[in-house]
TrEMBL record:
The keyword Signal does not apply. It comes from Leifsonia soli. The keyword Glycosyltransferase applies. This is N-acetylglucosaminyl-diphospho-decaprenol L-rhamnosyltransferase. It comes from the Bacteria.
Amino acid sequence: MKYAVMVLRSVEATAVVTVSYNSSGQLDSFLSSLDNEIRAGVRVVIADNASGDTAETQRIADAHGAQVLPLSDNLGYGGAVNRAVASLSASVDAVLICNPDVLVGEDALDTLRERLDADPTIGAVGPRILNEDGTLYPSARRIPSLRTGIGHALFVRVWPANPWTKAYRSENQVSARDVGWLSGACLLVRRSVFEELGGFDEGYFMYFEDVDLGYRVGRAGFRNRYEPAASVVHVGGLSTQAESRRMVRVHHASAYRFLANKYRGPLLAPVRAVLRAALAARAWLLTRRP
């Protein structure tokens, strides 16, 4: 089997990192999808964000041969990933970052690793991510700009086929290509690039940490590559789209943080003020009770 050959050659150089916050109910399926890789020697680290179910997480990890990295505080997704990557041995040069509600497809890690190894200009490579119903999960998109971001935000619900949303959403193009950013639900990063950039920006507790990482990968002169020949299933993809009111507000706050950092400087202060007000208004409209 092709994958087994790859693992024997690069087992010491590849690791998998996931984050758990009371996510023990998802971990058995996630780790089961990686059983072949774990048996071959790929290290899997579960960063636990001060959960209440750490004992169950440890039991499941032990059953699959994974490692738990307990954290004393809830650092958010990016912060926990950063700690897990820092805990890996120096021999690891590529890290698959995954949500715990992802099922990694057969040969997916093999395919991603081969793509990363084939081109040193690639800083991160991501698979095709599917929802449980077979639809595509949002990934492999352009970096949002003021024009596309505002147009998408204003019209996506009332005019789904608007040109700004079409420009922003490109995951329906099922072809290998360079993209602006890859979903943090599942992507393989070159460790040297990840660490050169300081990992995920921990100022994003939730949402947009993957957009920000992709933006910084590109600015550093590396490429974000979409590789749909590798496929994973995001089991929680559909349910997370029906977000709570708090999550909608956090999402909009993170969107503002990203765009404000991208469009900084005193001359753009009026633009940022309008953007902040517009995003706050949109969050209020989406979260008001019927």
